Description:
There is one protein chain. The chain is an all-alpha fold. It has one domain (2-70, 79-229): Biosynthetic peptidoglycan transglycosylase-like (Penicillin binding protein transpeptidase fold). The protein is 66% helix and 0% strand. It has 12 helices and no strands. The protein has helices at residues 2-36, 39-47, 60-70, 82-95, 105-114, 121-137, 140-148, 160-168, 177-184, 190-193, 199-215, 221-229. Helix 11 runs antiparallel to helix 12 (221-229). The longest helix has 35 residues, at 2-36.
Amino acid sequence: MKIIKKIVLLIILILVIVVGIYVIMGYNMYKKALEETPINVKINEIKSIDNYTTFDELPKTYINAVIAVEDHRFYEHNGIDIFGIVRAIINDIRTWELREGGSTITQQLAKNTYFTQNRKLTRKIAETFMALKIEKECNKEEIFELYVNTSYFGDGYYCVGEASQGYFGKDPIDMTDYESTLLAGIPNAPSVYAPTNNFELATQRQRQVISRMIECGYLSQKEAEQLYKE
């Protein structure tokens, strides 16, 4: 029995050491990225792009759709959603695949602006530190605004303004509820959900977005049915 306890303690110790090493590596990656480009400099770079869209220039339906499908506790967390991470881990274990990352909108912004899209653990930890830093530097509206201006929407569109003009021929503020919910679903997998690639898959994703909006209280069933008719 004592031997088993010693083995268990040894395994726990090894795990703690390994986790500690990864945390240190992730923190160093975060610090290096921040030293190369401070957050205020990065923000100014993003805001200087063509077709930059402010929060006030986004339809309410689009904002609600993105929050519902990407990060429904966006206004409640400080950049990290523990519940989302736990849910993602459970789903990953259930499917034996690294399918979900539990990333908040803030974490996705950190990834889009500072790190690569690979799923290495070190990058994920660095992204977490960066998300906490961003939350200290920016308010929620600015974070959301920066996120949609650094997301890829497929078909060569790298911000919400380009995507709205490219897909619908109009500025974001003029998007209908139908267009807003369609666009909100694309960044999850742009090569799959871009309407120009596969409109059927794009509308399937749109239905997922609308379903999440109902669950989060952003749409009533009657309003959702009207969107489906469109």
